[in-house]
Amino acid sequence: MDLGAKSTTRGDDVILGCGPLNADELAQIIAYWRAANFLTVAQIYLRANPLLTRPLSHNDIKRRLLGHWGTCPGLNLIYAHVNRLIKLHDANVMLVCGPGHGGPAIVANAYMEGTYTERYPSLTCDMAGLELLVKQFSWPRGIPSHVSPDCPGSIHEGGELGYCLLHAYGAALDNKDLIVCCVVGDGEAETGPCAASWHSNKFVNPKRDGCVLPVLHLNGSKIGGASLLSRLPRAELRSLLVGYGHDPLFVHGSTAELVHQQMAAALDFAVARIHAIWREARSGAVAERPRWPMVVLETPKGWTGPAEIDGKLIEGTFRSHQVPASACAHDASHLAALDGWLRSYAPEELFDTQTGALRPRLAALAPTGARRMSANPHANGGELLAPLRLPSPATFAVQLSSPGSVDAECTAVLGQYLRDVFKLNEAAANFRVVCPDEITSNKLAAVFEVTGRIATWDSRPGDEAASADGRVMEVLSEHCCEGWLEGYTLTGRHGLFATYEAFCQTVDSMINQHAKWLKATSEVRWRAPCASLNILLTSHTWRQDHNGYTHQAPGALDNLASKKGSVASIFLPADANCLLLVAHGCLASLHRINAIVAGKHAMPQWLDMPAAQKHCEAGIGEWAWASHAPSGRSGTQPDVVLACAGDVPTLEALAAAAWLRERAPHLALRFVNVVELLCVRTRALHPRGLPPAHFACLFGDDLPVVVAFHGYPQLFASLVHERPHPGRFSVHGYCEEGSTTTPFDMTVVNELSRWHLAIDVLERTSALGGGSHAQLIAELRDKLELHARYIWDHGCDMPEVVDFRWPAGSS
Fold first, then answer.
1. Across all residues in the chain, what is the average pLDDT?
2. What is the secondary structure of 699-763 as a DSSP string?
3. Does residue 470 belong to any structural domain of this protein?
4. Could you tell me the CATH number of the domain that includes residue 581?
């Protein structure tokens, strides 16, 4: 629908004739918009004299001008009109601001609504508070230029573009009356994640979910050139958005008055349509997926700013993107341009120049209480958070008589646990699982006993577990899955993101941004902790022998390990019982990013539930049953430590320990398993890091340590670099070797196999064995050669490898 025409109708609904606003309403909303624009410009430029009550001078200007003006007037227009919508309909609306660099606009509106003062009492609604407001922006120890966690009403900083729609849709899920107004900048709209995220509307069930009202803001330019969507012919852009399943309303005009009237009309139509969709769906009258409204707002970039400076066009061009008049701290002509620009808003009409307060007639235009977008409780989701009801992991425990006596598929066991999480929280409707089309592949299909895959589109015979009421969200976009879950958890709910380990790195940057958000919000006193972002990395590197080299990449762990210990944890459970306990703890945790690595193939199980509980509580520990002390040496310091982290590394390390026990019984070996990886760090770097004395109890001060590690060897080495004599740690892990091969051959080509581990142990303890170690090492190298011939001849691993079991009676 094009609202640029003088009159437009749809069916019986008149969308725009003379416009929905009378003359006084139009003047008031434009004045509110001017006030927000003024405060926006003042924040970017001024350190003092916020209402220009004396002539503007160079000393009033910040020496470092940091900020982005170009997108802000459009944001201020949207904010003003959504406020009108909220008051008119008593609507529950939160804002997700895609152009994160529009920070000063959102701060200005939060201040005008009074929320900023409530959150920060020193920023009073008077001249002193106003002066502090403008000074703090992009000021040392002040606030950033983005829509940062300091800003009330935000769940999305927008530092990296592409994720605003995903966060908005995550917020709308299971929030039945919530409208999430999501501003998508035309630069953001060019990103790959944003392109995929337009499909999110197909995962919204209007019977139980809120909705997202996207506003695609086209202002023509990015930081240095034209934006793609702003240059598309109108018909082509309309077809694109209709193809995504939206009903676009186009707002554009030659005057401010016309644009404001169109925007009011567009939002009136949009909210009426949203409520009609909700009514129809909730009455059972609708059986097909609705076409949701959206707004396409076209305004000049840097609208209301200087037309030109230094003979170059500013308004409507890329030059307005950041800081026009950038030399005003020392250049008279730039200072004059800024002065004229600020005074063009007539601040004396908008603010009381004696007190600094916003004029009461304008302040009255804002919603009140929790209806203010800057005070919407969903934007501080920890305040709404109810703990998940979690089943007891013991209910699903794998029973074993001794270590390695039974096999199990770890993620299949976890699937039964997650099924019951869904059961227990059905009424609360506060738990979701998101996954790139891999729930069944990853052996989590037990969840389909109680819920389905959300599918609001046409279901056909053969579709399995498809349901409009499903609470599992599958789409082949890691960006969509991770972004939805971020939005969902940040607004007070819980969930799990399950994905192939190799392709989690697709969203490494999203995880980076979320980690920074969590760290920053933990330092904002009024923000309550949210549920953790829980990531299950499965179909992992060591069992991608069938898919091959492209699927072999454990680098997601490196990315997460680089984050602050206060927000990041990595778990490498060796078996199903440990996985159950780890998942239970992660789902109960708050304000963290938890990565869990677990395989889906049948493997030996090592710990019964009581032993697993003790082990997981510690995060790391000796498995005494796998350690070995020669006769007469019990209780003495071992000769070597054999450590492991991960399910396949644990299997290989135990196989190495069993071989060494039989073939080199004179060696005293301590076996250590790591379930919570970052425990090996120092306490200064991670809250679960081992104290020095505890670390020494496990690894000694100067003992040789051979490590079988799930990820890249250099990651583990970096984690222990501050420990005594870190060079004594010999780490075996993934070394970028692999192809389509056998499961065991993956460990061989990366030198993680049981035989490579045993060789390393023997070489590091050669002085203890005389010449016998050389003979044992030669025997192991012969095994490696035999393995290579066997897999070439037979296409599978040797029975000796496949049939390994921990020796009975040796535990």
1. 94
2. H-SS--EEEEESS-HHHHHHHTTTSSSGGGEEEE---S---S--HHHHHHHTT-SHHHHHHHHHH
3. yes
4. 3.40.50.970
